[in-house]
TrEMBL record:
InterPro entries membership: Cyt_P450, Cyt_P450_sf
Transmembrane segments: 6-28
Lineage: Eukaryota, Viridiplantae, Streptophyta, Embryophyta, Tracheophyta
Protein family (similarity comment): Belongs to the cytochrome P450 family.
Pfam family, one: p450
Source organism per UniProt: Salix dunnii
Protein name: Cytochrome P450
Domain of life: Eukaryota
SUPFAM superfamilies: Cytochrome P450
């Protein structure tokens, strides 16, 4: 009888024990987690994905008016902190750039592989010494005042070619967006490798680069469930990583042909002369960069 009474006394406590344990663990986790900027309440599992809608830029602007210039979101299992004002951008990108220099690498990015991560600049996971060296080279050869000034003639020449092409197409249908995109890309390709990679007149004869660029842009703008739930990454449920790897393989093959041609020219003593300014590829070759590294820098 005494045992039965004792069991009846402690049975409610035993039933409540898991609930009490869950509450204690939740309180401990709440106290140990860093304080986050305010933001909309996340739904279980989905987080704030549905609240972003199909026009996330408008939704983010709306959130900034409610929660301030810095707010947090949950996209699936991933925490995202958004800075939406000039002051917030300066604080994140300039004042505290070293502390906040880590970056999210999309699952579809080829540099997720260990080998490409050693060579990439845009999607490298950590800012190591190799990354600092590549950043210095790119800054001095591409983005310094002297470099931008020397590239002005290329931009002017390509702009004139675009205007001339549009004038020549008078009376015909011209897709201005595609012509402008091709012109901007050719400006960049001439700075990098001193040649056009997209033909304004015969787009189908440009070696497929235009098609590759369009497909990469389309895939890059497609929401990837593996980014929201990394545990699903190995499954590649949408096939985006597989498609991206194939596109990068095609673009790398095009770059490989250009690099090989330049190396063969160097072997014959055909370096940059008065008819061709020294480009970014020349700089990388002079610095002893490997073909894999050059291909990755040009395309990633």
């Amino acid at each position: 009888m005494a045992q039965t009474q004792a069991f009846n006394l402690f049975s409610p406590i035993l039933l409540l024990l898991p609930l009490l344990l869950l509450i204690v663990l939740r309180l401990f986790k709440h106290n140990s987690s860093p304080s986050l900027p305010p933001g909309p309440y996340p739904w279980p599992i989905l987080g704030n994905i549905l609240q972003l809608g199909n026009k996330p830029h408008i939704s983010l602007t709306h959130f900034s008016k409610i929660y301030g210039p810095i707010f947090s979101l949950r996209l699936g299992t991933q925490l995202v902190v958004v800075g939406s004002s000039q002051a917030a951008a300066i604080a994140i990108l300039k004042t505290h750039d070293r502390i906040l220099s880590g970056r999210h690498v999309p699952h579809m990015a080829p540099s997720k592989s260990s080998e490409l991560n050693k060579l990439s600049l845009g999607w490298v996971v950590e800012c190591n010494e190799k990354w600092k060296y590549l950043r210095t080279v790119c800054k001095s050869e591409l983005f310094s005042f002297k470099a931008l000034e020397s590239q002005a003639c290329i931009r002017e020449r390509k702009a004139k070619e675009m205007v001339g092409f549009i004038n020549k197409m008078e009376g015909k249908v011209v897709k201005i967006r595609e012509v402008a995109t091709a012109t901007v890309f050719n400006m960049l390709s001439n700075i990098l490798v001193s040649r056009d990679l997209i033909s304004l007149e015969h787009e189908s004869e440009d070696g497929g680069m235009s098609s590759v660029l369009k497909d990469i842009a389309r895939l890059a703008s497609t929401p990837n469930i593996s980014d929201f739930y990394p545990i699903l990454g190995p499954l590649d449920l949408q096939g985006l990583r597989k498609k991206t790897m194939e596109l990068h393989r095609r673009s790398f093959n095009m770059c490989e042909a250009i690099i090989q041609e330049r190396r063969e020219g160097e072997g014959k003593g055909d370096g940059p002369d008065a008819s061709r300014r020294r480009d970014f590829l020349d700089t990388l070759l002079l610095n002893g960069s490997s073909d894999d590294q050059i291909e990755t820098l040009l395309m990633v």
